[in-house]
Amino acid sequence: MPTAVPIRFLLGDELCEPGGFDPHTTVLEWLRGRADRRGTKEGCAEGDCGACTVAVGERRGETVRYRAFNACILPLAALDGKQLLTVEDLAEAPRPGAALHPVQQAMVDTHGAQCGFCTPGFVMSLFTLHHRHRNEPDRPVNRSVIDRVLAGNLCRCTGYAPIVRAARRSVDAAGPDRFEQQAGRTAQRLAALERGDDARFTHDGVTWAAPRSLAALLEWLRECPDARMVAGATDVGLWVTKQLQRFETLLYVGEVEELRRVELTAPDGPLEIGAAVRYSDALDLLSAHYPGMREMLLRLGAEQVRNAGTIGGNIANGSPIGDMPPALIALGARLVLARAGAEGGIETREIDLEDFFIEYGRQDLRPGECVARVRLPLPRPDQYYSVYKISKRFVQDISALCGAFHVRLDGERVADARIAYGGMAGVPRRARAAEQALLGQVWSEDAIEHAREAMADDFEPLSDWRASSSYRMLAARNLLRRFWLESASGAPQRLVVGA
Ligand SMILES: Cc1cc2nc3c(=O)[nH]c(=O)nc-3n(C[C@H](O)[C@H](O)[C@H](O)COP(=O)(O)OP(=O)(O)OC[C@H]3O[C@@H](n4cnc5c(N)ncnc54)[C@H](O)[C@@H]3O)c2cc1C
Ligand code: FES
Ligand code: FES
């Protein structure tokens, strides 16, 4: 085993090198158990309630960008090289009577707290909104943006109206706070923490490794094919906190440079998205190219989940109700998988994304392989594309059903049709019979009716607590009809809530 290279980060303004911890430790466990910071609360311990929200600062050139994360599922070791801010950091000084941060003062002034349990999480989410607004003053902060920022924070006492008022006030608060004033210096300190080598350590037989290049990641995978890869930990984190699973090696892919890139390899495509690209970092670009995907992206988890979760993690997890696979399959996405080759080289293979999902719980990922990137064709002017998500809550909820539709017309007739669903089978799957029923037909109500009927040959959906089989089938058929109605009215790629 290589020599340990321990992790270090800034906790507020202090350099912190927390040695001797199990790599499964979450930020929340460490804050409350070891760092004596109990302002951050535990509610659900599964990323749903936002009581544990903290701000994580990452260097962006000469400044720092703060984003909200759920500390309850974020591995402590993933903080390496970053700055962690908790509610204790915000006031001017850690003493009674010290001036509060503008977001704290706004919560006081608008009576935004009753029992207070959710309050530290709200304050931290509002803190990140305050900073984003200071850094991007041209992006308006309207009601839907505030709703979006607060969607991952649950309050059951106060009601949201005063908290929304606090958001408004804190955004309007004049002047930079001390974090903004110190941003240049903090960025320099973070730059000094950046490393050329991989962070790695072992505690009680459990190893954490954070390789910085794809070659190094694949070497780790060759040595430890059973290592559990971790990206945003928005799935893995729950296996640890809720199912109490333990892994011998946790292999963090979030620092692998090649997996964090989004690039257009040629002006006419394809668009390549690295497996470790987080939703928040891909949202604007994906929505610009595929506006029909935007609403689903904004409804995938909430801000804290999108700041951590990755597209590669969603695919690799293989869930039948993951939202990205149907959206990408309908676009004709290809998946690039990589593993270590001879003499330190990298071997890749490329498959259709739909072929990755073999059956429930089984994906086409060979020993030593990782998901490297997704390749997406760029949209053409003669195509219609939309994604619709059906869930019990509008945001921060897993889909009962997700339908993605892509049609290309040649004149009035359908030249190409790709329809993919999540939630209709044990894996995300195309509706091939429905597609066949559409091909060559005039894009009309008649053709849609035939395709809706043909869908009976495509799926026999299950009933579970999210939806019954008959509901799923009816909703899947109706989504196809909705897609046709919207395309016929010329608005299939509509823009949505929270734009
Ligand atoms: C509160 C909450 C709400 C959520 N809402 C939604 C939702 O609305 N829609 C939805 O689809 N999902 C949702 N999820 C699930 C989750 O956020 C997504 O599946 C997310 O994309 C997982 O990405 P991650 O980076 O966190 O993956 P991780 O949890 O880090 O990993 C997930 C799996 O992928 C593997 N893995 C990661 N990267 C690679 C790689 N490069 N190569 C091979 N294997 C890899 C891991 O080993 C693991 O098996 C939600 C989760 C939470 C906690
Ligand atoms: S404790 Fe509920 S999201 Fe973390
Ligand atoms: S003030 Fe009690 S849950 Fe929000």
Automatic annotation (TrEMBL):
Q: Which UniProt keywords apply?
A: FAD, Flavoprotein, Iron, Metal-binding, Oxidoreductase
Key word Metal-binding present in the record? Answer: yes
| Pfam short name (any one) | CO_deh_flav_C
Q: Which InterPro entries match?
A: 2Fe-2S-bd, 2Fe-2S-bd_dom_sf, 2Fe-2S_ferredoxin-like_sf, 2Fe2S_fd_BS, Ald_Oxase/xanthine_DH-like, Beta-grasp_dom_sf, CO_DH_flav_C, CO_DH_flav_C_dom_sf
The segment(s) forming the FAD-binding PCMH-type domain are 201-381
Molecular-function annotations in GO: 2 iron, 2 sulfur cluster binding; FAD binding; iron ion binding; xanthine dehydrogenase activity
Q: Which EC number(s) does UniProt give?
A: 1.17.1.4
Q: What class of enzyme is it?
A: oxidoreductase
Write down the superkingdom of origin: Bacteria
PROSITE patterns the record matches: 2FE2S_FER_1, FAD_PCMH
Protein name (database record): Xanthine dehydrogenase small subunit
